[in-house]
């Protein structure tokens, strides 16, 4: 006889209960109905802020469960064993209350003015986003975890943001005074204002809308938007009205089995109070869900307390706290130069780790949290020293909790690696669930893989045991020109998004032919496949080549007309050209027809290829110029255009030592001297900026070009996949000296071969957009829909911002 | 489960006909819709099809098999999966989202890189040289 379980609440904890029960109830003892107040399926509230990145937060639906969306429980009758919604009354055999909590709004005058929000649900975020548009100042009431998340949201909505906290420091529950001070420095450096030790007295409005907040000390802060993030309160009203026992400060009282005072009624997560305590974190909620699922299946699991460790990236600052934050003894490190504060709390014999705080660098968190309650695996300073990163997992006991969100121990992970054949982080995640919630233990998982003897292989991916350079040599020496032959003879399977573009890039560098003919087309990443750059809404951007950044008024007008006629967003790029964004695939040929007719060609912005050669105006115009930087930049850009490489290659030419073209931030930088040109290599901006190093001085133009030919070709042949020139040189045995020997002194006897390879590329270059337009067969792939070539993708929608079209994501399909 | 968006729209039938022929309705609740000639699909590449207002990504793998899954990539919120690189992971035929490279099992729609994420799959077949997708309405 199937029994009926009704779950009230469709948040993360309720979802976990349902997921666990469905997975373990193989006999089908329970039929499950979930009552969801929100009008959307369960989502990952812990990562609520990722909603601003357009990330999909939905949790995977569980098969065989009836979820009634937008149907909250409004009545509970424990005698009759029924629960009521606005639409129906359901009989239950067991009921689980997982109603979560609501945001606490201090009952100050003005708290309900227009412009006051809470930060709890996706609906809250949508309303906040809509209201904040065009407004200037925001205030967050609450300086804890949620408050700082909310502050980040306001900052991302372009509001000048202030954070108000009653306590004398930020995150008073998680960090101590020194940690709070370090956190404050980080946050103030981001341009936010922090007001600790201030009590909100009232919110003042004009015409019903928020204008400012007033503190109890009389201070005033102007605000157009106020977000209350001053804590949460258990949602226990349903239980309260039904006569269930609730705690004096709220929370449905449950025992260690999750049972409330009513028979067969359980409560889990933030609505429950257990041993006088309400947990506001997801890990304890998950633990309660597992206990109740076990009980429903006749088990005897008990809730024995849960880990309340926290690690978060708040406003870009790593903050972690675990165990006790104060104790008998402690070791602290404060480094104002790097903004790092770390503290370990130890037992009075200094042997046992009782807790700790990390601000600014939380790499040691995974190891430290797993050591909680046990001996330290290394001296405290060694564990905290950021240079070492985290200590290894080798010394952890088997019972150490590596993933606290999902309660996965070291032993479980080691078993998954040793006995279940997991050979990478993805496999360990899928097998054990470790690392799938907050992700903070992923570095530890990597180390555990290494310490279990899973080699850090040079293999490109599961399909090839060779590095990119080895594959390049194999293809060159064996004359292999198709992926199918290569994978059949030297690999396995049918490739993936890693090895296929690598082989495509090698083929392109080697043959310099059209990159989309025959089998080669299937190897290309979408950018190379459509000869345009994929953007976040599925549209593409178009970047015509503007060599050296020099362009005629006529050509500028054509770009303007094309952008206007196709409703494209235009932006000047850092490489001195113009990006046209928002084109649908079926528009690309028509856009390029116009551009090619006007004399433009592909800018290869979509390829791992030579991009731009930026320049200053040089001797032609500049009073200080000593060489013709524009002329050289144009010549270099035309020489190397279309050349595919392991990663993008950027270059620049400056006409004098003032360096207006920022050449030392490029892979290839040329700076004019009175005597000729200085050549710099290995610079880049981006993720890890690095200045280029001087390779050779006072070169003639011919000498310069010859060295650049050799340098770029040597890089193409020997660099790893997605390795910029900077990393390539740093990795090279012998470094810059070795490079200089190869490029200038020809120590490997390669120079003639490298120059010949470059000459071949230059001679065989054709503009791939012109080649595409000339061939109807090549044009056929440029449709949004294979069965409706003339229909534009209806999911692509735009709104207008600062007079230009910008994308709107329409979301999940019906 | 009553999912957020599975709504039954009778008028979808009419839409279905707009972009392709409809085979006789063999079972209530779904129809086989002709999408394109088999030869129109590049081996180891996808193509998007619009059926009613549903966007479906169809794939022809190296061994000649056909697969159909949602074109929508829940990891990024855009309709792009047909434009990913097709390959294998172990024995599993896969497509990697072109946005952030999460791989999906073409047979089941399960995302192999993000636990809990999956997309819908659709029945697909080749008849008389034409690719057909069985599409619920």
| The CATH class of the largest domain in chain A | Alpha Beta
Greatest interface (CB-CB under 8 A), with counts per chain? A-B, 61 and 60 residues
Query: Superfamily at the CATH H level of the largest domain in chain A?
Result: FAD/NAD(P)-binding domain
**What is the CATH T-level topology of the largest domain in chain A?**
FAD/NAD(P)-binding domain
What is the CATH-assigned architecture of chain B?
A: 3-layer Sandwich
The CATH architecture of the largest domain in chain A is 3-Layer(bba) Sandwich
Number of DSSP E strands of chain B: 11
Shape of chain B: globular
The CATH superfamily of chain B appears as Rieske [2Fe-2S] iron-sulphur domain
Overview of this protein structure:
The complex is a heterodimer of chains A (814) and B (137). Chain A has 814 residues and is α/β, with parallel strands linked by helices. Chain A has 7 domains: 3-102 and 234-296, FAD/NAD(P)-binding domain, CATH 3.50.50.60; 105-230, FAD/NAD(P)-binding domain, CATH 3.50.50; 309-390, 2-Layer Sandwich (Enolase-like, domain 1), CATH 3.30.390.30; 392-456, BFD-like [2Fe-2S]-binding domain (Arc Repressor Mutant, subunit A, Orthogonal Bundle); 475-524, no CATH class; 529-607 and 783-814, Alpha-Beta Plaits, CATH 3.30.70; 608-761, Sulfite Reductase Hemoprotein, domain 1. In chain A, 29% of the residues lie in helices and 22% in strands. Chain A is built from 24 helices and 38 strands. Chain A is globular, with a radius of gyration of 31 Å. Chain A starts with a strand and ends in a 6-residue tail after the last strand. In chain A, 48% of the residues are buried. By secondary structure, chain B is mostly beta strands. Chain B has one domain: Rieske [2Fe-2S] iron-sulphur domain (Rieske Iron-sulfur Protein, 3-layer Sandwich), CATH 2.102.10. In chain B, the strands form 3 sheets. Chain B has a 6-stranded antiparallel sheet with strand order 1-11-10-4-3-2. Chain B has a 3-stranded antiparallel sheet with strand order 7-8-9, with no helix packed on it. Chain B is globular. The model of chain B is unreliable at 1-20 (pLDDT under 50). At the A-B interface, β3, α10, α14 and α15 of A face β1, β2, β3, β6 and β7 of B.
